[in-house]
Specification:
single chain; alpha/beta; about 15% strand
Length: about 130
């Protein structure tokens, strides 16, 4: 099997509880290793301590590749629910430096946190 793993960044009780639910769904369909970057460990999951905690834990997210030993890292938001096998995604990631999947639930709100110019530039470079 490819050297791959899933990592969550989950600071705070609400985020950890959401990650626990996500990990349970993930494990129904996958045997891939899991780790969390968090302020408190989650039972039966590799815990990675990283600090200091900044707004929305962005610095931890940007450093995930330095915090884990896997050559392929699948980052999942704590509120993500996995309903299938991740191996097709991991196989794709073997040939690319970065693979991104948009949430179908975002609709017209996709990338609403960035300027319209940056959003257009991003969407034009996806295809």
């Amino acid at each position: 099997m490819t050297n791959a793993g899933v990592v969550y960044v989950a600071y705070g009780l609400k985020a950890r509880q959401s990650a626990i639910q996500s990990i349970a769904m993930l494990r129904k369909h996958n045997t891939i290793p899991v780790a969390t970057v968090s302020d408190e460990p989650i039972l039966d999951v590799k815990h990675i301590h990283f600090g200091p905690i900044d707004a929305k834990a962005r610095w931890a997210k940007l450093n995930i590749d330095k915090l884990v030993e896997w050559s392929i890292v699948v980052y999942l938001d704590a509120d993500t629910r996995i309903n299938g096998n991740l191996m097709p995604l991991i196989k794709i990631a073997e040939d690319f430096d970065l693979v991104i999947a948009f949430s179908e639930n975002q609709g017209n709100e996709i990338m609403n946190h960035i300027s319209s110019e940056e959003r257009l530039q991003t969407v034009m470079n996806i295809g």
